[in-house]
Amino acid sequence: MKRLIGLILLASIAIAFTLDLTSYLVVEGWWFDRLGYDAIYQTQVFTRAALLLLGSGITGVALGFNLWLVERWQPRDSVQMKRLQLKLIPFLGVLIGTSLLLLGILLRQWDAATQLWESPGETVLGLQRLADPWVAFRGQQGSLAWVFLGGSVLLILGGRWLNRAIALGMSLSMGFILSAQWTTVLAAIQGTAFSESDPVFNQNVGFYVFVVPVLELIRFWWVQGSLVAVLVTVLAYLEAGNSFSEGYFAGFTLSQSRHLYGLLASVLGAIALSFWLDRYALLYSTQGAIVGAGFTAVHVSLPARTCLSVGAVVLALIFLKRALPPLKLRFLSTIKLPSLKSSRQKFRKELPARGLLVGYGGAIILGIVVLPGLVQLLIVQPNELTRERPYIVQSIQRTRQAFDLNSIDEKPFSPQDQLTPALVQANLPTIRNIRLWDTRPLLDANRQLQRIRPYYEFPDADVDRYTLRVAPQSSRPSVLSPASPAPVASPASLTRPAQESQSPRSSDPVTETRQVLIAARELDYQNVADQAQTWINQRLIYTHGYGFTLSPVNTAASSGLPEYFVRDIGTQSDDSSLQTSSPEIRASLPIERPRIYFGEMTRNYVMTHTKVPELDYPRGSENAYNTYDGLGGIDIDTAWKRVLTAIYLRDWQMLLTENFTPQTQVLFRREIRSRVRAIAPFLRYDRDPYLVAANAAPSDFAAKTSNLYWIIDAYTISDRYPYSDPGDQPFNYIRNPVKVVVDAYNGSVTFYTLDPNEPILSTWSRIFKGTFQPIEAMPDSLRSHIRYPLDLFEAQSQSLLNYHMTDPQVFYNREDPWRVPNEIYGDKEQPVQPYYLIMKLPEGEQEEFVLLYPFTPARRNNMIAWLAARSDGANYGKRLLYRFPKQTLVFGPEQIEALINQNPTISQQISLWNRQGSRVLQGNLLIIPIEQSLLYVEPIYLEADANRVPTLARVIVVYQERVVMEKTLDQALATILSSGSQSPSTRPAKPPATRPA
User: Fold this and answer.
1) What is the DSSP secondary-structure string of 811-847?
2) How does DSSP assign 198-223, residue by residue?
3) Dist. CA 43–CA 769, nearest whole Å
4) Cα-Cα-Cα-Cα dihedral sign, residues 795, 796, 801, 807
5) pTM here?
6) How many CA atoms lie within 13 A of 860 on its CB side?
7) Which residues, other chains included, contact 282 with Cβ-Cβ below 8 Å and sequence gap of 6+?
8) N or C: which end of the chain has fewer CB within 10 A?
9) How many whole angstroms from its chain centre is CA 780?
10) What is the 3-class SS of 483-537, one letter each residue?
11) Which residues, listed in sequence order, are joined to residue 928 by a DSSP beta bridge?
């Protein structure tokens, strides 16, 4: 009966596992096929299955054979190695020490497998950096002690069944680890050569990016398996016979000794491979003055590791000779060591064997620690610059190449005090697009004014530019006259662009490019009332967000609240569309299909086209409903499809509901970053996807044209570029060759490539043919919105802080390091963030969308340079570094903040506001280049303590040493440009004292 129950239990487990695996493979296949990436899925499944079988099979066979030998040689023969006799206390010490070592290795294996389980999409090409196995217990020493105490006791008392469980667990986990690294293996097979080689080994960079990670994966496999086999075998042999009852260990038999010699030979082979690969790791060394192999690494550490690798091979052959009967390996006949024919001969030869191991350990200490330290101290440090100069040159060149700094065009920029009303008039598009609204206060305002219902949320706001129609003007706007103060004007009056003043033909609409903040109104089901959080509401009714807001960055309403080009949901006269501020805006933007089924917050799965209508948007005291007609889901039109999908989603109510129809679809993996990562896990994705409202031509996937799209920048990265300094980044090579477009309604994903010749992308293009389309295939309405990505810009800027110094002596002495300046945001200090601006560069012919970043010297606060990245048209991707003259003081952000805060009028006003039940928030300080002049602009927001609705209260403008705070940007500009005005708010301020960084 017990046997029958056991068989039923095993059969049930097998059936459940089979159903679960089948549902996963089939439903995932449907999902990839729906998106048109079934080739990627098939390649992934085949490769992962092959690696799983290979890793588990080889590991299982090796460990199983080892356990078979252990069990075969458990009975003790009469010939013992008396030299290894251990009394009770030493015996228990060896036993406990061996069990603790084995437990540590098993924890490392467990940690590696769980890391890959939790984060299967590794973005850095190569084996994941396996975490310290004690990380899970860091700060929990009590738990760690209990784990090791209980684990060691279990290993000592477990017996053969525990050994078999360890072998099975090691086999499955090793297969899983290899399977999770399928991208590493495929990239090594199809790797594309780079155009550079390293200067030490003269190997192509592609060898380090593609091949070395696979060799490290093999090393991990070999080391883990060998160590587990040795320690399990030692434990088994120590516990054999009557060791516990007799209170001592009588020694290993000859058969056991030969077995252990063979296992030690395997461990030494793994050590040999480790030291050989460690030679390549010197190219990323952080020891010495640079990142990469310096004088000591090349002349001492490299030869030492080579010798240690060869020495490990020699020792492995010696132990292999001892493990096998004489003359079985003829190629080892030159190694003249006596065979183990008797216990006396074995006793005499044990000491030389252990002596070799001790000598090898001493050689490791000498070659890895002592000799490099002595050479560094006695030879390199007394004359470090001369010794390290050629390696410093390599580090500078390789880092600049890896972060694409060599293509930055450097220009001198000498600020001139030439800002006049005429220059302002000539640069009106720049002035008109100065950003007064930051994303954080705008989002706070949106959450109070535009959420409509509690279940709507604005997860983010993105800066973009749109070409908008404007009403034709009958006359040109007046320009500030230097002879008289400007009138107080509305924000739009001073900054009307020049093209509006022309007299266009009636058939040609007048347009202008405006910088805006766009924010998606997504649905956050967590904010639905608790009583309403039912399965039907979660899966069938609350399915999507609705619309977006579009706000000009430079204007506010008379109340100080944001103005909106696009806002709200519906009116009494037009219930189904978003509302626009003017007919011209409505003609400029597509707002007909504003539903968001795929976004940044859509983390739950839903069923559409059911008998239950979906909530579309609130309409007064009632709701409007809609039925999804897109193609973003998988069909469950048959019973077996419904069953498999229910098993895959772990949702048994799908089998019980009567609300499904033959047209019902399941939409899952709707969060856009996880969506694209599932398709292409070999790319790294920007942290800030941004929404675009555009009329794009429908693809073959889309049933209808969508109006909302997400654009995500994708990067190819590696941490294996020789001599490249990663700084604080987890990579030391980065490019941005891919733009990903996700349809917010249909969920389609399209990869467009900017640089198909980039080596890593070229590799994946060869593996997955047809996945990447040329950028020319992107619809123009979307292509006009691509921008230089923030993550890439920040990584390059961080690298530029030190690697703008190309002279090796200047770099070695750190004579001119830069830093990112700080600003006051809210009431706290924080690093300045890169910001987008519509402006005309000094050598540009017209205004364009530019990403800017200022730099200051490391120990001073004045500005030393600013970096600009271009985003429009043929100039996309071009970067310019404008350097300020070192002999001229150009105020940096910290000095400008000091000027602002020490101004009596501003300080008094801020203090007054902060005492009246409100809080003052200082916004981002923007540095605006206009021709050869620099204008500093900082918005001031006012927020009530009781209600977080920030309003734009004032605008501060700083020019030269004059500080102005007015209600609008126009008034501040008019005041600061007027001659002879010495009001308190415009009184020249003394230059602030600079302080060390």
Assistant:
1) HHHT-S-EE--EEEEBTEEEEPPPEEEEE--TT-SS-
2) -TTT--BHHIIIIIHHHHHHHHHHHH
3) 11
4) positive
5) 0.88
6) 14
7) 200, 292, 293, 297, 298, 301, 302, 305
8) N
9) 29
10) CCCCCCCCHHHHCCCHHHHCCCCCCCCCEEEEEEEEEECEECHHHCCHHHCCHHH
11) 935
Angle at 418 between CA 412 and CA 422, to 5 degrees: 125
Q: Which residues are registered as beta bridge partners of 597?
A: none
CA dihedral sign, ordered 315, 317, 321, 324: positive
Q: Residue length, the chain?
A: 997
Q: What's the token pair of residue 785?
A: 């919105």
Quick one: which of 580, 565, 600, 577 has its CA closest to 676? 600
Q: Strand, helix or coil at 114?
A: helix
Task: Provide the β-strand partners of residue 774.
Answer: 753
Sign of the alpha-carbon dihedral angle for 328, 329, 330, 334: negative
Beta bridge partners of 686: none
**How far, in Å, CA of 44 to CA of 22, rounded?**
16
Q: What angle do CA 236, 239, 242 make, to 5 degrees?
A: 140
Sequential DSSP letters for 417-451: S---HHHHHHTHHHHHT-----HHHHHHHHHHHT-
Cβ atoms of residues 691 and 462 within 8 Å: yes
- Return the SS3 of 880: strand
The Cα 633–Cα 651 span in angstroms is 16
Cα–Cα distance, 811 to 800 (Å, whole number): 12
**Distances from the Cα of 734 to the Cαs of 1, 28, 311, 791, in angstroms?**
64, 30, 38, 10
CA distances from 873 to 686, 763, 876 (A): 21, 27, 6
Count of Cβ atoms closer than 10 Å to residue 34 Cβ: 18
pLDDT of residue 493: 34
What proportions of the chain, in percent to the nearest 5, are helix, strand and coil? Answer: 45, 20, 35
Residue 467 main-chain phi, psi, to 5 deg: -90, 115
The CA distance from 481 to 139, in Å, is 68
**Tell me, what amino acid is at 123?**
T
Packing angle, helices 343-365 and 302-323, rounded to 10: 170
Cross-strand partners of 514: 466
Q: Which two tokens stand for residue 67?
A: 């356990």
Q: For the chain, list residues with pLDDT below 50.
A: 77-82, 121-141, 327-329, 332, 337-344, 346-351, 474-506, 572, 700-703, 979-997
CA 391/CA 46 separation, integer angstroms: 44
**What is the rounded distance in angstroms from the CA atom of residue 667 to the CA atom of residue 595?**
14
Q: 279 is written with which tokens?
A: 């030679």
How far apart are the C-alpha atoms of 519 and 578, rounded to whole Å?
13
